[in-house]
Amino acid sequence: MAISLNTNLHQPSLSCGTKVYSGLKLQSPCLFATGRPNLTADFYTRVNKSLQCGTRSCKATRSRVGMMPIGTPRVPYRVPGEGTWQWVDLWNALYRERVIFIGQHIDEEFSNQILATMLYLDSIDDNKRLYFYINGPGGDLTPSLAIYDTMKSLKSPVGTHCVGYAYNLAGFLLAAGEKGNRFAMPLSRVALQSPAGAARG
After folding, report:
1. Rounded distance, CA 28 to CA 37, Å?
2. C-beta of residue 175 within 8 angstroms of C-beta of residue 138
3. How far is CA 101 from CA 50, 95, 105, 115, 183, in A?
4. DSSP character string of 123-159
5. What is the DSSP letter of 139?
6. CA-based end-to-end distance of the chain
7. How many whole angstroms separate alpha carbon 147 and alpha carbon 154?
8. Per mean pLDDT, which range of 9-18, 48-57, 100-109 is the poorest?
9. Contacts of 156 (CB under 8 A, 6+ apart)
């Protein structure tokens, strides 16, 4: 059984009974032989030629676009007291400005990083305010309460800002900021619920 293959599958149908839109002007395909430029057919041939151009002799129409490397962005930072700039990762630049960002589930490891950062910044200068930017779902009870206890034991005042959502214990830490320095953005959400516990009957 022989099957004939249609090799003109990619050719546009140019019957006189159809209409072809070229830009905003309606054209009839019957006018193709009048000498007017057929923009639809010209566009089709250019696209088809560029798709079929798979050999190395064909030159690329545009240069390759370089992608930004995946990872923590690096930003320029000017060291106080010096005139030099250096490239540091984004979190390091925020820490140097006394900004601590809580944007994930608070577990033991993350809590220890926050505690160490708070204690270090308080030891450098205990008169400047620390800023907590909170956008997270909360976390485990004991690590979150460790952050709360450390906030209250520091000499530096701690301001809290909600920039997205603060649920459960993240909302508790938001409310634990310095009086008069607790803020939530207009479209942020804060939700508190009782910590996990056990009931016996």
Report:
1. 12
2. no
3. 48, 9, 12, 12, 14
4. HH-SSSPEEEEEEE--B-HHHHHHHHHHHHH-SS-EE
5. B
6. 81
7. 11
8. 9-18
9. 121, 122, 125, 126, 127, 128, 129, 130
Has this prediction a pTM greater than 0.85? Answer: no
CB 129 within 8 A of CB 158: yes
Q: For position 38, what pLDDT does the model report?
A: 58
Domain extent listing, the chain: 20-52, 90-191
- 38 contacts: CB under 8 Å, gap ≥ 6: 22, 27, 32
CATH of span 90-191:
3.90.226.10
Q: How remote is the C-alpha of 24 from its chain's centroid? A: 38
Report DSSP letters for 95-106, one per residue. HHTTEEEE-S-B
Does the pLDDT at position 123 exceed 70? yes
Distance, in Å, from the CA atom of 38 to the CA atom of 56, rounded to the nearest integer, reads: 30
